[in-house]
């Protein structure tokens, strides 16, 4: 694309950034809705409608208390022009600043332009509050080098060694069409319309430069990422994420989630993280017809309280030595036994969502868990855990149908900062 | 498509092909009457010979005085050809379509001072064989309003060239259908539709004609018959039996002639042009990328190419204004038209296009991505024009 084209997109991008900066500098106060957003409170969103700060050392949407709704989207970059790609990332950052503050995507807005202008916001979030929207960006291995070994953007040398396609695991049924991607954006919000609106407007801004490869809607967070949150249930009906890494344990986050100085790629990735996504279809019907005992033995927790088998309360420590009638209370093939940090030797921050993508044509729900996990290194994070799950009794009831990994840069700081600046500078 | 069939069919209507001057006359002949009010009365200063073959396009003059000129294009090659005079950015100043082998056609065009290119397109494909053409003399300077008004006039000239060819090719198609020439009719179907699809927004503005010419099966209200191109398409490709298609063929031609007559009366304003350019891209996105338009013949890529050409023609008519008002946008639109054309070009098959059902998901996605990007750019033209 010529410089003409570049400056055009800059019009929509950076111009928006400037305006957002002005708005964000306004007095703090309650967030009412579109076009009235004000500076979000310094901490996490207090109410489900509040704004979550966009800027910070880490990207929002990782340890942010998990919102209720997800729209996750992966893109292929369809240009070979580095400047075009940078321009989209800048335009996205500007739009993300605005939308996470409860503003329209563009500086003009959905309805305040001329009658013959194409609106720079699609409008379906008009009147809706910020709703805790977070937008989290990630860069896939193929952005650095295509599967054919082409270095399209001069980034190959900057790919951190851990950023590589995940290995295959036994039982995988990975569909390449809904796997991988050069870029990703995770949009989480407490209102599904707000999350979808954000993705839709980012897709528009990327026309001609990026193309949606796949996307996934999720509802009902399946993990709590803060001890202030109750543990939700996944579609198996069990509490999920009881022993998750939480925002209140900064040392564990530093050890297991955030890329640190000295780690591979730290020159641009320090303060960032790696996200792994897996679309895990649940075999709902066989599960629903299994006995409570079978279900609890499969998971390793009670269905009602979520207590480790052999214990009473959800947060009672998992004790893998407890025996009942000469058997381990928590079976050695149960999911908790195999996945727990005690036995996997590592920890990951889970942030998944349930999904129901209609039915499969055979009368069965196409449903399950869209698994999202953040970690400091996929090799010693998800891959290590997943390898340990080879004999997991739960495998009988699930199938992994997609796989992706992305490196998520650190948070955007100043008003002129943008997603990936350190990588592309 | 099979050329012998086309040649034979066209030759049944010599009046539509030869011995007529300029586009207006062509349209008149095709429509069997009507208003004659344009170039015919202007005195052309000359008659510039153009010798067109399968691999050459020799234009007798490369330097002209500003004014009205008449080109006489003689095709001595073996392929059907076209002749264009392009201004900057391939804005069509004048064109003749469908110059069959052995035929001479004339083009009358008014050229202000400037740099132009002439082009022959043997086989009616690609960028054509180009030759530079310089016009000197008094250059008319138009103000904004005049530039915009000129856009409507330029585009009307384009529409007339298309409706002329539409009537010709529909006549040939209809004749083939009525003669029971299945293969000939199949070959002509996407060719005739090309001229329809290029000006579809104009044709659609005649609300009652579009559904009976171009309606798809199942779109009819209760009690309405399924007629037009797609009715005949179904017979040709589904059953291979057109013995009962005669009345549909006659009706199609009558209706197409009606479109041509009405289109002569229409001058689009700049906003309509801008919206028409985008509407043609939307046609691609909603009907052609999906293979819904030509569901029996799978000739959707022909329609795709025609919609794209029509959209570009509408944008180019506005080009002189846009270049002043928003040169950045013009640059972006040019790039994205080029990118889309390059994407489409991968699917060329001979003088036509690959069948839709041969395209892979990846290939369709490539086409879709390029159209999505192009549409984002073209959609901004309306704002620029309205912001005058």
Brief rundown of the structure:
Helices cover 24% and strands 18% of the residues of chain A. Chain A has helices at 3-24, 82-100, 141-144, 192-205, 250-256, 266-269, 284-288, 292-299, 335-339, 341-344, 382-387, 421-424; strands at 69-77, 134-139, 183-189, 210-221, 273-282, 323-324, 327-328, 349-350, 353-359, 365-375, 398-400, 404-408.
What does this structure look like?
The complex is a heterodimer of chains A (425) and B (388). Chain A is α+β, with helices and mostly antiparallel strands. Chain A has helices spanning 3-24, 82-100, 141-144, 192-205, 250-256, 266-269, 284-288, 292-299, 335-339, 341-344, 382-387, 421-424, and strands spanning 69-77, 134-139, 183-189, 210-221, 273-282, 323-324, 327-328, 349-350, 353-359, 365-375, 398-400, 404-408. By secondary structure, chain B is α+β, with helices and mostly antiparallel strands. Chain B has a domain at 42-141: Immunoglobulin-like (Sandwich), CATH 2.60.40. Helices cover 51% and strands 16% of the residues of chain B. Chain B is built from 14 helices and 11 strands. In chain B, the strands form 3 sheets. Chain B has a 5-stranded mixed β-sheet with strand order 3-9-8-5-6. Chain B has a 4-stranded mixed β-sheet with strand order 2-1-4-7, with no helix packed on it. In chain B, a hairpin with a 3-residue loop joins strand 5 (81-87) and strand 6 (91-99). In chain B, helix 2 (22-31) crosses helix 3 (144-178) and helix 4 runs antiparallel to helix 7. The N and C termini of chain B lie far apart (45 Å). At the A-B interface, helix 1 of A face helix 12, helix 13 and helix 14 of B.
